[in-house]
Amino acid sequence: MKIDRALRQRLFAAVVLPLVSVVCGFIVAGVAVVVTGSDPIEAFTALFQGAFTNPRAFPETLVAMVPYVFLGLAVALGFRAGLFNIGAEGQFYLGAIFGVLAAASLHGLPGIVHVPLALASGMLGGFIWAAVPGLLKARFGAHEVITTIMLNYVAFQLTDFLINKGPMSDPHSSAPRTAFIDPAAQLPILLGGSRLHLGLIVAVLAVPIVWFLIQRTTIGFRIRTVGFSPGAARAAGISVGWTLVLAMGISGALAGIAGADEILGVSHYMPASFSVGYGFDSIAVALLARSNPWAILPSAFLFGAMRNGAAFMQLQTQVSSDLISIVQAIVIMFVAAPAMVRWILRLREVPVGGLQITQRETAGVSSET
Amino acid sequence: MTDFLSHLDIAGFIIATLVASTPLVLAAMGGVMSERSGVVNIALEGIMLTSAFAGYAAAVATHNLWLGVLVSIIAGMLIAALHAVLSIQFLVDQIVSGTVINILAIGITGSFYRTYIQNSELAGTGVLPALHLNFLPNAPFIGVITLAALALIPIVHFLLFRTVFGLRTRACGEHPLAAETAGINVYFVRYSNVILSGALAGLGGAYFTLQQIGNFLPNMTGGRGFIALAAMIFGGWTPVGAFLASLLFAGADALSGRLQIGGVQIPYQIVGMLPYVLTIVVVAGAVGRAVAPAADGKPYKKS
Question: What is the complex's ipTM, to 2 decimals?
């Protein structure tokens, strides 16, 4: 059977590349397991059991998938504008803070009003936290990689300040955490006996919405144009600065809703130590999906399964759950370097050159305005 | 105000600043070398974290701190070589490649930490010898890595601005095609500089485990690699400038330590934000005045 060249290239980008990346990620991680003196087969079996086959494992994988959908969309949307939002973690925190503020301080509202209000509040928190680096980039040319990372650390300190014996901590608890949210603000459970909550539906619905925003609206058109070529966008009369601020803001809002959703759906209060590495994970989710909103769903599912399974693996085999970070790093590496996969598979006729994400105009973690 | 100053102990504060600037100035100089040759290096954070761990592990295994320092430097060079292969050979977006290394560093050090260090009975390694100024009894000790960092500033400056290698490096960062035309091997120059930047950041990593506390903690670099990048930008891509900028950030760091001890009624978390907020302000403010190498961040493909 003769497959024509264009189709072959698309197949390579959409199927072969992600698959080979994930497989290579697990191989390298397996080597790391051997080096630390454990059995990789045993570790990965435990990972699989923890993600899928143990009692209640599958719903928990879906629970873990929810924030990855939002965060993957957040990072992917940034990529479409040529922005590398590496600060999803901080925006996630701010979304949680704003979400818990609305969810815990208001009472007497019906759930149908309270839940959307709290989620919107979380989006606002994320929007603000991300719009600041957007503004700094648009106005001063400060590279978003540095500013968003720094804002992550500020967000950690801010959370600790607010929650650890601070203005937002629960006066009735000795643990560093906020008060419980109003019961009406809790996201309803979808599946009895599990923690699977309505947030999954919200996350799945967010995918077509973000797709529509990027592909079918004026804002999305501006975002894509700026991402493709800021110079051309400027020449076409698009305000590059405002588009950057808006793209960062929307990206942050998506990360923010992830934070609020975790509060409303899972924990029902905010502990001082909250997110663990969602920020970097979400970069891997977005890159594996090649910034395509639809592909975020399988990508987020994979990472949700890995996160959920890793906890069981650590418990069962003493192999650190940090192993997952190795898988992620390798996945990103291969997705970003198709030339390497081509070389491994001895393929020809597939695109050379890497995935280009950051704008060449401001690359260099510098600033040429 | 006088009350505030009396708590501050100026000489001690200056020395604490100098010591705290050590990893920043080393990583920032690494950034200078890499970016002067045209390769953006946001992997500095991951390089320092990995080196901190590798040096500590080697020191524990061999009971020799100096061997630990050596292993830190070699580990830094190896990780930097990975960044070089990805970004120079495979033309991976340099920011993405750096991110890969930063995530990989968390994964590798975290895995090994849980397996070998966390639950073991290992005692710390102790710390490298340090200089104690007799006339300032309350000042912190000045460790050998700090002294090495100070010595390296003029050396890196000389290398970049007074040698043929430095001239070639800068040519590759400004206009690689012209450099290639003039017979310079752009790939070789970029590889060398990225790997040398790994050696500098690797020594910076050794500071955390072998000079500062004699132990390893997960994520102990705490964003210093990114702050070093800001110092590099603020310092105008020069070693001396990077040093002065590092002092500024380290000062904010040392000040936050002081304010906590000094009994000033500011919540420690707010003071802890200082270096990070300062970095944001500086990166935003330095722009327009500092000019990056023209080909910084642009992959070069031999035609």
Answer: 0.86
